[in-house]
Design a protein that fits this description.
The complex is a heterotrimer of chains A (314), B (289) and C (234). Chain B is mainly alpha-helical. Chain B has eleven helices and two strands. In chain B, α1 crosses α9, α9 packs across α10 and α9 (218-233) packs parallel to α11. Chain C contains nine helices and ten strands. Chain C has helices at 42-49, 72-78, 95-102, 111-120, 137-149, 167-182, 194-200, 218-223, 225-231; strands at residues 4-12, 19-26, 31-35, 54-62, 65-66, 80-83, 155-159, 186-190, 203-208, 211-217. In chain C, 43% of the residues are buried. Classes of the chains: A mainly alpha (314), B mainly alpha (289), C alpha/beta (234). The complex binds adenosine-5'-diphosphate and magnesium ion.
Chain lengths: 314, 289, 234
């Protein structure tokens, strides 16, 4: 690879890291600050992806959409759609321990996958949605990439600042108190449920936005682009390794894990085909193992949660 | 549609599928009730059991002879997984163990995919014609599956009702603090529970495989119906898991009357949300965590 | 020498101490009662004997052996049984199975133990196949006591066995407590019904904010004006 190729690759990576950072921030609101277990991240991501794709793409025969609406509308719709799906699930499951939410979110992700594959009139079925506009897409390759990176980076920064402000507010302090003390949570009753629901819905909306950014970057989306378990799992590891409860940790984790994941893909792609397939699954084994190792040896992550005066809880 | 058609094409397949779900749901309900967390590696542990049986069949055993061996093997796997990945988390919030089990799910599946590949496999090749029992069409394997499920459920129920350690398991599920005060050794109950759960996983995976085909993703795909069955019946209740399993299985087969066939898999999810909404303790009044 | 000797025990559930130096003794065949306001640390003091919290100071000696911070199963085997204040039965197990669980650590013929327990609680004989969770509060309390007596302990710890019971049941529980003592078991009892409990015990302790406040025979405490004003409603 020459220098330009390397720079191209770096920008490409940085864009994806930004998208994953948004996902990790969304999960941080849910898990890091509130203790909610979302095992269907890929589902909310996919909903955002398709919502924006359908609203902003060029018209195509055989499916709904092609409204060519402005990007901002698509992105807001992506957040709204993900939030709209999160709301009833949270409403039903947040009364119980987070195990139930985890089961239900696995289910939601599965159903979303089914809908995307089945409802061709809406999602284009297995062919997916193409002709999705990309901001600054008519520039040359490199400037266009850099422009997109700037957009992603800006959105990550805005999300970061918003979440930081929120967790430092009384709302955030209360959420942490609830998370760390089941008894206190039970005593606060109904109010807690409402707060948890807010956190779950807001986190899911960020995941939806990340989905939208992903499809506008790729200009197309197919069901294969979103592998539910692996995507969900990668984001979990990003957050836990980076430091759950710490927004900078979430972003850092996204960068570290995405780089490791991509480099390992580059490596396994060079293997002879006989072992390449097995190597692909061996990588999956290794991410599972990585989670176990982090949980065991570095449960607070690289950048632990900063909580003056209180001992770390998880 | 005639009644017999309904029976043969919808109800009987539903009951067979439901009994397989029941075996998986019993394991889920035991872990949920006694160890108090949602075990997400359950489905993939079932996959592993199915493929261990496949390896034994390839080595020359008949499928039904391979089943008990696979059950024993996965019992050991489950105990080892607990020791390596769950046990050290016991002082931390239970949800951490849930997360660890998700990681284990991924690892077990990857092991199956690396060792056995990702192509569908079967225990026996060739088409089996069903026999006619007074108009009801049943294949041998379906008959054996039902018999095996009955055997497992009766055996487990007797064990839990009447044996010393079975009672200890129930006591642990009922009131863990009091069980400890009564001198029940937590670690032994945990180990025993995993042995039983592992064996049940292998059995459910094997039965899925013999009634259809083996696939590396099959366990993950039945995780949701199995959880729905356990919660539907009432967490911690073995009879509930059986009931829940049958309901989910039959409902899935019936769903084609109201839903496009592609959404069969959504049935369990709808049932799960419904029961959480109207009766979170489940039909037989189980626990709510 | 006393059967149980707690000396200056300090400790709590988390990092903060709840007990700030609690001392008490229970002699052979003695009924000792602990009274005090809600949140005084009565239950916590009892749990400290049973190794259910972090002990950061003091000693607990039972029958000549230091049992400070032993694991519960070891303490049970040594001869102390404990009936917690709440959740003290296996609700989804039958009365008889509750007793069986009480004797979990004991092998061999248990018929003498069953006879003894059903002798103490004849009402439960007819209900032996009922689920403990389906019984009335008073009967549940009896199941809880019966479970704890199955191991034939030397010392029985009872945490508010009469809470929420009718006066009739309260009398019955006190009577059974006396019977158990007469059969040779020492008893340490936490009670909200301070007046009645002090009237029937041998000795009593008044705890407040995690420390000893008063101690003496039941009669002496009843007669103490300060105790009367503090806890007995004048
Ligand atoms: N499991 C527990 N964890 C933390 N604190 C507890 C626990 N149980 C009791 N406490 C606290 O310990 C103090 C004493 O409680 P307790 O011993 O139950 O009082 P009492 O039995 O005298 O009413 C109270 O302030 C209570 O809040
Ligand atoms: Mg108390």
């Amino acid at each position: 690879m020459d220098l330009l190729g390397l720079a191209n690759y770096a920008v490409f990576m940085a864009i994806l890291i930004g998208i994953y950072a948004l996902l990790a921030l969304g999960l941080n609101i849910q898990w890091g600050f509130t203790g909610l277990f979302n095992a269907g991240i890929a589902g909310f991501f996919a909903v955002g992806a398709y919502a924006s794709a359908i609203l902003t793409s060029l018209p195509a025969s055989g499916r709904l959409g092609g409204y060519e609406l402005p990007l901002v509308v698509g992105w807001l719709a992506a957040m709204a759609a993900a939030a709209l799906i999160a709301w009833p699930i949270g409403k039903i499951c947040l009364r119980f321990r987070s195990d139930y939410l985890a089961i239900a979110t696995i289910g939601v992700a599965e159903i979303i996958r089914l809908v995307i594959r089945t409802e061709g009139w809406l999602t284009g079925g297995v062919r997916g949605v193409t002709g999705i506009p990309r901001p600054f897409g008519d520039l040359d390759y490199m400037p266009s990439q850099i422009a997109y990176l700037a957009i992603v980076a800006t959105l990550v920064l805005v999300a970061y600042l918003l979440v930081e402000r929120q967790v430092k507010s009384p709302w955030g302090r209360m959420m942490r108190a609830i998370r760390d003390n089941e008894l206190a949570a039970a005593a606060m009753g109904k109010q807690v449920e409402a707060r948890r629901l807010q956190a779950f819905v807001f986190g899911s909306a960020l995941m939806g936005l990340a989905g939208a950014l992903f499809v506008h970057f790729n200009r197309s989306v197919t069901p294969e682009a979103i592998d539910p378990m692996i995507a969900t799992f990668l984001i979990w590891i990003m957050l836990i390794l980076g430091g759950s409860g710490n927004n900078r940790g979430a972003i850092l984790g996204a960068a570290v894990i995405w780089i490791i994941w991509s480099v390992s893909e580059l490596l396994t792609d060079r293997l002879p085909t006989e072992v390449a397939v097995q190597a692909k699954y061996a990588r999956v084994f290794i991410i599972g193992l990585t989670l176990q190792l982090v949980l065991r040896f570095r449960p607070e992550g690289i950048l632990p949660e900063r909580q003056p005066g209180a001992p770390p809880h998880r | 549609m005639s009644f017999l058609e309904f029976l043969n094409f919808h109800l009987v397949p539903g009951i067979v599928l439901g009994s397989v779900y029941a075996v998986g749901a019993i394991g889920i309900t035991l872990v949920f009730g006694i160890l108090r967390f949602a075990h997400f590696a359950h489905g993939d542990m079932a996959t592993l059991g199915a493929f261990i049986a496949l390896a034994l069949v390839t080595a020359g055993l008949t499928p039904w002879a391979a089943l008990p061996v696979a059950m024993a093997a996965v019992a050991v796997v489950a105990i080892v997984v607990d020791k390596l990945f769950y046990d050290y988390l016991k002082a931390r919030p239970k949800i951490m163990t849930v997360m660890a089990s998700l990681g284990v799910a991924l690892m077990l599946r990857a092991v199956v995919q690396v060792v056995f590949g990702v192509d569908p496999r079967t225990y026996a090749t060739g088409i089996v014609r069903p026999d006619d029992y007074f108009g009801i069409l049943l294949r041998d394997r379906e008959l054996y599956t039902l018999a095996a499920v009955v055997l497992i459920v009766v055996g487990l129920t007797l064990f839990l009702r009447h044996s010393r350690w079975g009672k200890a398991m129930r006591a642990m599920s009922d009131n863990p603090d009091l069980a400890r005060l009564s001198g029940v050794d937590n670690r032994k109950v945990t180990m025993l529970t995993w042995a039983i759960v592992g064996a049940l996983c292998a059995a459910s995976g094997f039965m899925l495989g013999i009634n259809n085909e083996l696939q590396s993703m099959m366990g993950w795909q039945v995780l949701l119906p199995m959880f729905a069955a356990a919660i539907l019946g009432g967490v911690g209740r073995v009879e509930g898991a059986v009931l829940g399993g049958l309901i989910v299985g039959v409902a899935e087969e019936m769903s084609i009357f109201i839903l496009p066939a592609q959404y069969k898999a959504a049935t369990a999810f709808v049932l799960l949300l419904l029961i959480l909404l109207v009766r979170p303790r489940g039909l037989l009044n189980g626990k709510v965590l | 020498m006393a059967l149980l000797d707690m000396k200056d025990v300090r400790g709590g559930y988390g990092d903060a101490d709840i007990l700030h130096g609690v001392s008490m003794t229970v002699g052979e065949r003695e009924i000792v009662v602990i009274v005090g306001p809600n949140g005084a640390g009565k239950s916590t003091a009892m749990k400290s004997v049973f190794g259910l919290l972090a002990i950061r100071g003091g000693h607990i000696v039972f029958d000549g052996e230091d049992i400070t911070a032993w694991a519960p199963d070891r303490i049970v085997q040594r001869g102390i049984c404990y009936v917690p204040q709440v959740d003290n039965v296996f609700r989804e197990m039958t009365v008889h199975e509750n007793f069986e669980m009480g004797a979990f650590l004991r092998r061999g013929d248990l018929s003498a133990a069953y006879d003894r327990v059903y002798g103490l609680f004849p009402d439960l004989k007819a209900k032996r196949k009922n689920l403990a969770g389906d019984l009335s509060g008073g009967q549940r309390q009896m199941v809880a006591m019966g479970r704890a007596l199955m191991l034939d302990p030397k010392l029985l710890l009872l945490d508010e066995p009469t809470a929420g019971l009718s006066p009739k049941y309260m009398e019955q529980i006190f009577q059974i407590t006396r019977d158990v003592r007469d059969a040779g078991v020492s008893i340490l009892l936490v009670e909200q019904h301070a007046k009645q409990a002090l009237a029937f015990c041998d000795r009593g302790y008044v705890l407040a904010t995690g420390a000893n406040r008063h101690e003496g025979t039941g009669q002496a405490l009843l007669a103490d004006r300060e105790v009367a004003e503090m806890f007995l409603g004048g």
